[in-house]
Amino acid sequence: MVASARIISNDSLEKIAIEVVGCSLCKLSRSRKNAVPGDGQTSAKIIFIGEAPGKNEDEKGRPFIGVAGRILDEALQKAGIERSQVFITNIVKCRPPGNRIPEDDECAACRPYLDRQISLIAPRIICILGATAYSSILGGKSITQNRGKIIKRKGQKYLITIHPAAAIYNKNLRHALEDDLSSLSQEIKKMENLDRNTILDYIDG
Ligand code: SF4
């Protein structure tokens, strides 16, 4: 379930992280070194959702810290988006052996953690990184045909883009990622301006 407004609850990102670290709900728990709950604050405006932790992330228990993470950081910086504005996580919180694509039962077992993170943060927009996240969250098929698009589902906005790992050896894809994050930054500014004008109209009225 995706919430469009922050809810009052006893849940917290810390509580979810503790549960994830001790989780054995799917077979990925047997091969992981460290579960990777996600990084960021409840006040984040954007949630980035990738596929799964890789080798470096599995070693350290933190998301997007390898080469793909550096590409994402650079694209964020170029788009003027600060790390403090974002929460970064994955569809599954444990590394699949050999970095294979997570299986449907693993995605389904892990999904409640992601849904709780989304409900708590109530982001302005969710940025989908890559085909696995696109398919798992929105049931989408072609990332190449749909990247760069902003769509709304059940009151929640999403921006679809490529996974930074796909851009490691491909400059064109790196530029595509940077362009998409620049659109994301513009969209956030647009939404904030709209909020500001609504508040000013209310005060004036
Ligand atoms: S991938 Fe998710 S459901 Fe599976 S063991 Fe890790 S935290 Fe639990």
Textual characterization of the structure:
This protein is of the alpha/beta class. The chain has helices at residues 13-21, 55-60, 67-79, 104-121, 131-138, 143-146, 171-204; strands spanning 46-50, 86-90, 125-129, 150-153, 156-161. The chain is built from seven helices and five strands. Residues 1-5 have low confidence and may be disordered. Bound molecules: iron/sulfur cluster (SF4). The site of iron/sulfur cluster has 14 residues, from α4.
Task: Report the portion of residues in β strands.
Answer: 5-15%
Mean pLDDT: 93
Radius of gyration: 17 Å
Task: Tell me the number of strands.
Answer: 5
Q: Summarize the amount of helix as a percent range.
A: 40-55%
Low-pLDDT runs of 5+ residues are: 1-5
- In angstroms, what separates the terminal alpha carbons? 36 Å
The number of helical segments is 7
Can you summarize the main beta sheet? 5 strands, mixed
What spatial form do the alpha-carbon principal axes imply?
globular
Order of helices and strands: HEHHEHEHHEEH
Strand order of the largest sheet: 2-1-3-5-4
Name the bound molecules: iron/sulfur cluster
Query: What structural class results from the helix and strand content?
Result: alpha/beta
Give keywords.
alpha/beta; single chain; globular; binds iron/sulfur cluster; 205 residues
